[in-house]
Amino acid sequence: MVKSDSSLSTPESVHNREIENKTLETTYLQQIIERKNQEISLLQHEIKRHKKKSLFSAITQKIKKLIKRESEENVYLNRRNPYIVKYPEEVIIKASQLFDKDWYLDQYPEVKISGADPAAHYLQFGIKYGYDPSPHFSTRDYQALYPDAQKMNPLVHYELFGKAEGRKCRIADKASSQQETLANNKIKITFISGEPETPGHFYRISHYANAARIIGAEIMEMDVASAFANLEQITGTTILFVWRAGWSQQISHIFTVASKAKVPIVFDVDDLMVDAKLAKVKIVDGIRTIGSTEQQVEKFFKAMQLSMHFADYCSAPTTFLADYVRAYDKKTFVLPNGFDEYTWHASRLAMRTRFNSQHDGLIRIGYAGGSRTHQKDFSMIVDVIARILRERPHCRLVLFRKGTTHCIDIDEFPALLPVSQQIEWREMVPLKELPWEMARFDINIAPLEFGNPFCEAKSELKFFESALVEVPVVASPTQPFRDAIIDGKTGFLAYDEESWYSILSKLLDDSALRKQIGRHSYYSVLWKYGSERRVELISSMMEMILFPGVRAARTFELGLLKSKNDCFIMPIIPPHEVIISHQKLNVSEVTVVVPSYNYGHFLIEALESVKDQTLLNIDLVIVDDCSTDNSIELALKWINKHKGRFNRVVLLKNTGNSGLALTRNVGFFHSESLFVIPLDPDNKLLPNFAIDCLTKIKESGAAFVYPNIQRFGDDDKVIGVHSYDPMRLVNGNYIDAMALIRLSAWAYVGGYQHLKFGWEDYDLWCRFIEHGLVGEHIDEILAKYRVHNQSMLNQVTNRTENKSKVKADIQSRHPWLRQAIKNVE
Fold first, then answer.
1. What backbone phi and psi angles, to 5 degrees, belong to 429?
2. Based on CB atoms within 10 Å of each CB, which residue in 171, 414, 558, 731 is the most buried?
3. In terms of Cα–Cα distance, which of 557, 543, 563 is closest to 181?
């Protein structure tokens, strides 16, 4: 219970504080309502468009028959979605040729046991558990490929919209280059979750299951009871991955069946719960705060230890925890926790919403503890927090509660009672809504009992969750946080009360520092904790388990070499200013970045080609590099006329001439999408560039995608026609800068580097190769490259006196390039 000193405030001041505390929350709600209204308008527009094209004719007859027969039973008619009243979701599912009732019941025996209607069950639980309606449609693949469909049941969306738009039912079975290496299209992995209703399920099961899907593996996800009821499926799997399932009669049967079928078992543990000796209140303080006993926790830990013992391999999210498990002579993989695409989009939208909202003048220190198991951790800094709040009346401590149960019991901390009026209690939210809470913080704190093995094993998820909304973190120096944070650059490590006070005071007094640290932390986590790295890690794990010997040894060697590239290098971003910014606070998947220097006579053609893209939601960022012509005036006029076409459009200007590479970096720096297209102002995109490249990059998991490009102007040669091959790049560049690039890949290699005489794009592709990143080619002309005498290529790069310097520069950066390098563009 929260106590307060009534002498600290009057009823009027309390009322004023309540109004202040609700201001930002009200703004968020208004933004949410606006976004929902926009979504409804878009859906209504889509329905009208599809009706005009008579695309519902075939399915309408089936639906009408089913509606007539089942109208009294249908419980979905009152859904608020406008199209559902006429085409109820359950009826659409039943009418679909992609819904196989018998297959669904065989695949998910718990549905048969419960007696539930298969269509109704899929409608209610399909997304939650990743169930498929038939072997020909993948729920998770459809969601991954088309984020705009996540508000609706995937199969319903496909029947109403996706089929007519040519969308895919699942990620193509054709193997990418990485798939061909592993032949993963023949691999089946069964993921068993011991706690399917907890947030950990998403970090340890859903995220890695999706990563395995991307590289072509066939995936089944189930809880322990479902796996026990479906043992025949276990015998047909290639790898069994089990998370947090302690030893029991059911797990014993599952492991026995897998062992007899020679199926390798990976046991995943994400807390230090495999050593019963640690089940003591002095080590695990949460034992007392959750009302458990040491004996009960010891029994739980022993069950986990037995599951670990009988597994062939183990995995853990942190190096510390993996090393602890290795002490039991278990071969252990490190599979870090991370974020998915949904969390990234939600985090960035929450951050932008707050940035565009009126601030209430308060500075918030947030502690996102989700349960009352961190009393001892919080006690390490409670005196510092109390002192900070006393000294700064405008400061707030944000804590959470579940109904009437506070996640931090401040009754145990008398120092907080005099400043309890400066504590904001927020209601706990589901994991998917957490970014909106994190975005309210100005500083995020992550205190842990330094030196306690149970705390040392905790993952660094508070760091990357906070980084996604660009909120700086101050954390205890446990090994996971030491591994994740570059102290003073991407966050802060506080070793004692004095350093906690000093760091917090510095951040509270310096908003520019908070912004800088938050931004650097954001770019440091994009690759390290994103889906692309998970694909690498799960692929490596599969290679070492399934192909022991030479291939496993080479994979292990590659992992050691790649670990040397894990050092984060912040891309160089020159000083710049915002001329104009317009945004609708929606989500775009692609940003087009246009760097411009004295190309006003070409600029509008390039911008028109962006406007004409068939991809509906798209962002545009224009960066002027101190042009002396009328480029900025032309861009401003064009933006004011066409800003409604874009979700977000920004015009920036460097404060000093910085060159093409760093000007592109400024554009990437201001991109709020996962994928970016650099477009020089003398070139043009064809209408399907963005949508075709986006589809390809999602299917392949590549770091970048490039198409064929038609030259125009002084010649009409087609360039970029070869498939991606690092061996070809050894001899010279054949890939133009016009490509769709993952923002995370750009950040991973440190962005574009300034090369005095050009070839910035070639340098970027070389650094992608050095970091193990793969490109994909589209054998179709999707862009136009202007050939003219005033281009940088002709004015600088290809000048006789510069050609040898260009070669020397690129080869000094990448010694593996051969002297036979050609003078290619």
1. -125, 160
2. 171
3. 543
